[in-house]
């Protein structure tokens, strides 16, 4: 379902708990809601912020150039991954399609 609609795995579950629904998923979501899911429990186990590859790469590139601020900021955000905070939207968003198409990971992240 997620692959078919090209949805981000992490963002999907947080959005589902919030009630954000892609139009193509409306029928599925209505059936899911009939089961009365515990959205608070979903939010306790589905983080808003994860170490997304594009953010890790950005922090590593900056650190290599001598700027540790992006790495420190990323670590700060990831220190409280379940609490949505204003101004941190970029840390919750998946990378661009261009990044995803060109990025290779070797450690399984």
TrEMBL record:
| Protein name per Swiss-Prot or TrEMBL | Selenoprotein O
Q: Which UniProt keywords apply?
A: ATP-binding, Magnesium, Metal-binding, Nucleotide-binding, Nucleotidyltransferase, Transferase
What's the cofactor? Mg(2+)
Kindly indicate whether the keyword Signal belongs to this entry.
no
Q: Which family does it belong to?
A: Belongs to the SELO family.
- The source organism is [Mycobacterium] manitobense
Q: Is Lipoprotein one of the keywords UniProt gives this record?
A: no
Q: Name one GO molecular function term.
A: metal ion binding
InterPro entries with a match to the protein in the record: SelO
